[in-house]
Amino acid sequence: MFAHGFKWHFIRDLSVLLVALCLPLTASYGQGEELVEPFPTPSTRQDGASWPSAEQTLVPEGTFAVQLAEALKLGPISGGTKAEELLSNLGIKPSNGWVSERPITPVALHDIEKGISAASDQKKIALKKDQALKLFGDIKAKLGLNVNPSPETLVDQTPGNRVIYRYTDAEGVIHFTDVYDSIPEEYRKNVTKNSE
C-alpha cells in the first residue's frame, strides 16, 4: 500500500514540476524575435492597385441572373429560373446557357456582357448600351466579381478548341503560339487565328 501511494505522489509531484517548468517557456516564446513585415494586403500595396484575390468569390449563375434582370428592369422576377428565361429570350446568356447552381465564370461574364451590348443595340432592352453595361459592372462589383479578362484569355482550353495564333516577324519568320500575350505588340495587328 505504501509503495502504491508513494508512486501516485511521485507522479503528481513530477507533473506539477513539469507544468511549472513549461509555463515560463511558453510565456517567453516569440519574445525578442524581430518583427516580420506582413504580406501586403490590398490596402498596403505600394502602387495603389489591388492584389489579385487568392480565392475568387463563387456566385451562382442564378443569383447573378436575378440581380441582372432586376437591374435591367425586365419585369417581375420570381426567382432564378424566371430571370434566366427572361435574359435568354433577349440573347443575354452564357454561351452554354444558364445553369442556376453553377458558379459564374469570367468566360460566362464576357458572354453576358456581349449579350447585353447586342440586346441594347437591337433595342430589346430600354436602356442605352452604356447604361446597361454600367449596371452590369455595378452588379459584378457588388458580388465581388471584378475580373476583366482580355478576350484573348477567354479561349476554351479543352482539346480541339484551342486557338493557335500565327504571325510573321520583321525578318519573315513565321511564329505560332497559343498565348496571345506572348506576341510582340508590333505584330498583333497582323495575327491570324487557327483552330486545332
List the keywords.
7% strand, 5 helices, 196 residues, single chain, 40% helix, mainly alpha, 3 strands, three-stranded antiparallel β-sheet
Low-confidence runs: 41-46, 49-55
What is the count of helical runs? 5
Arithmetic mean pLDDT = 75
Give helix and strand order, one letter per element, not per position.
Answer: HHHHHEEE
Strand numbers in spatial order across the main sheet: 2-1-3
Outline: flat
Q: How far apart are the termini?
A: 87 Å
- Number of E-state strands: 3
The largest β sheet comes out as: 3 strands, antiparallel
Query: Over the alpha carbons, how many angstroms does the gyration radius reach?
Result: 30 Å
Structural class: mainly alpha
Beta-strand portion reads: 5-15%
Q: Approximately how much helix is present in the residues?
A: 25-40%
How would you describe this structure to a colleague?
40% of the residues lie in helices and 7% in strands. The protein has helices spanning 2-28, 61-71, 80-89, 106-121, 129-142; strands spanning 163-168, 174-177, 192-195. The protein is flat, with a radius of gyration of 30 Å. It starts with a helix and ends with a strand. Mean pLDDT is 75; it is low at 41-46 and 49-55.
Task: Record the SSE blueprint.
Blueprint (H helix, E strand, L loop, with lengths): L1 H27 L32 H11 L8 H10 L16 H16 L7 H14 L20 E6 L5 E4 L14 E4 L1
